[in-house]
Design goal:
The chain is α+β, with helices and mostly antiparallel strands and 370 residues long. The protein is 34% helix and 28% strand. It is elongated.
Length: 370
């Protein structure tokens, strides 16, 4: 669009500055996105909201802000219908607007009641994006930093929100950066919230180790789900606390070791000898090992799962691979089965596993080693 003229306080001017109300005469294509009350800003420097908290004082002709009325909010050149609700016994209010308005912490506004045809109060924005139930303590925390530097405002907002998108904190505080929080991807976590999450991680990880002593730790995604936080939050907490370690997505206590005992090793050796006696191995669910020990053997690679209920030892896998490579190109399932004296129940999923791992390639009803 093109600016055809500028007016400030009903006088023509050549320039308007930041913070001034102005009338901007535009030549446009009739875009409905441009209307009275819009705020001219650099991109992403101000956000919009339909709910905010504010500190409000009554006008001189009123002893207090009326509880009911046909209220209008005047901020900048915008005029929107609002409803208000006092926060406890403070001078703080929750303000809900019927249309999005661009605001940031510290902005000033006027409240007018069209029924009384009077200005009933005025105030300043506290939190442009408050929680669902702001408390009196929230009001006090923000009023104390209302005239402080932007960083102090950002820290106060973060303290109330617990976890917040860093970019939003910057915008809402008018350029502040939280200095005491824990970065977690595009978010920042307050020290108090981080301490609460850390305590939750510690309790869940300790309980998991007690229940599954042979597993390396609990998955980060499962931990995030249990605590109702994001995975980047879990990663940030673990990285910042030397009491935890993360290995291949599993979170564990730094002092925890998952070592198979000598007794369990002897049990596995007995089972391994039985399995390696023939390629016609039993179903994996029928292997005579405790489930936790079985999973530990699978994780360290001594037992390899090739199908939903089928596994071979590492030595057998080597023999199976060599057998597939020794067969003539175009070999069938039956030929592969007979070469290893296994049943079709073992042969079919084993060949499918060899296909997936790149040992063999299928062509029609036959296969060939790559």
């Amino acid at each position: 669009c093109r600016v055809r003229g500028l007016h400030r306080h009903e006088e023509s001017v050549d320039r308007v500055r930041a913070g001034e109300r102005a009338a901007v005469n535009l030549v446009t294509d009739g875009s409905p996105d441009i209307s009275r009350g819009n705020l001219l800003v650099t991109p992403s420097s101000v956000g919009t909201t339909q709910r905010f908290t504010a500190m409000m004082q009554p006008a001189r002709s009123f002893t207090e802000i009326p509880k009911r009325g046909a209220f209008h909010l005047h901020i900048g050149t915008a005029d929107v219908n609002v409803s208000i609700r006092r926060i406890g016994q403070t001078d703080g209010f929750v303000v809900d607007t019927d249309a999005p308005v661009p605001v940031m912490m510290g902005d000033r506004f006027i409240l007018r009641d069209s029924g009384r045809k009077a200005v009933v109060g005025g105030g300043r924005i506290l939190d442009p994006h408050p929680g669902s139930r702001p408390a009196s303590s929230d009001f006090d925390a923000l009023v104390n930093v209302l005239d402080s530097d932007p960083d102090a405002r950002a820290n106060a907002l973060l303290g109330l929100r617990g976890t917040a998108r860093t970019e939003r904190l910057v915008v809402d505080s008018d350029g502040g950066t939280p200095t005491g929080g824990l970065p977690a991807g595009s978010y920042t976590i307050s020290p108090a919230r981080a301490a609460t999450i850390t305590a939750g991680v510690r309790a869940i990880v300790d309980a998991y180790h007690a229940e599954f002593p042979l597993r390396p730790g609990i998955g980060g995604s499962e931990l995030a789900t249990r605590l109702d936080v994001s995975e980047p939050t879990i990663a940030a907490i673990v990285e910042s606390d030397p009491m935890f370690v993360m290995n291949q997505g599993a979170v564990a206590s730094a002092e925890f070791t998952h070592v198979v005992s000598d007794l369990d090793e002897r049990a596995w050796e007995t089972v391994r000898e039985e399995l390696e006696a023939s390629f016609a191995v039993p179903r994996m669910s029928a292997i005579d090992l405790p489930p936790e020990l079985l999973h530990a053997i699978l994780r360290r690679g001594d037992l390899v799962q090739v199908g939903e209920d089928l596994a071979f030892t590492k030595r057998q896998i080597g023999q199976i691979t060599e057998a597939a490579r020794s067969l003539s190109p175009g070999f069938t399932v039956a030929e592969f089965r007979d070469s290893l004296s296994m049943t079709r129940r073992q042969a079919v999923p084993t060949l499918e596993w060899l296909d997936r791992t790149g040992v063999t390639i299928r062509a029609g009803d036959g296969r060939a080693a790559r």
